[in-house]
TrEMBL record:
GO terms for molecular function: guanosine phosphorylase activity; purine-nucleoside phosphorylase activity; thymidine phosphorylase activity; uridine phosphorylase activity. This is Pyrimidine/purine nucleoside phosphorylase. Belongs to the nucleoside phosphorylase PpnP family. The lineage of its organism: Bacteria, Bacillati, Bacillota, Bacilli, Bacillales. InterPro entries: Ppnp (IPR009664), RmlC-like_jellyroll (IPR014710), RmlC_Cupin_sf (IPR011051). It catalyses: adenosine + phosphate = alpha-D-ribose 1-phosphate + adenine; inosine + phosphate = alpha-D-ribose 1-phosphate + hypoxanthine; thymidine + phosphate = 2-deoxy-alpha-D-ribose 1-phosphate + thymine; a purine D-ribonucleoside + phosphate = a purine nucleobase + alpha-D-ribose 1-phosphate.
């Protein structure tokens, strides 16, 4: 989806890794949330509190979920991270992403 309508946007940025990863939170009318962000080249590790869908819009990265091998995305792709897990990223070019926070059971 390239556009969202009828949403609230948090003006305060989420800033990680000394500004190399940033995002803004959008909140839908039903209360669900997504973040839209940018990652600069580098290596990062994140942890989740709920299941996440990482939708890579542009850019090149590798990702590694717990117990799995490294996988690559070039310019467009999706991966899912289970709740209460960590994952690693190797970002090779500027990445534009949308992270969806999924309710349990999805």
């Amino acid at each position: 989806m390239s556009q969202f309508t009828n949403v609230e946007i948090s003006t305060k940025a989420n800033i990680y890794f000394d500004g190399k990863v940033t995002s803004r939170t959008i909140i839908f009318q039903d209360g669900t949330q997504k973040t839209l962000g940018i990652m600069l080249p580098g290596e990062y590790e994140f942890s989740t509190s709920q299941k996440e869908e990482m939708n890579i819009q542009t850019g090149i990265l590798e990702y590694k979920l717990k117990g799995q091998e490294w996988k690559s995305i070039q310019n467009n792709g999706i991966f899912y991270v289970p709740a209460n897990e960590s994952f690693s990223l190797k970002v090779h070019s500027v990445v534009d992403y949308c992270c969806s926070y999924l309710p349990e059971g999805n």
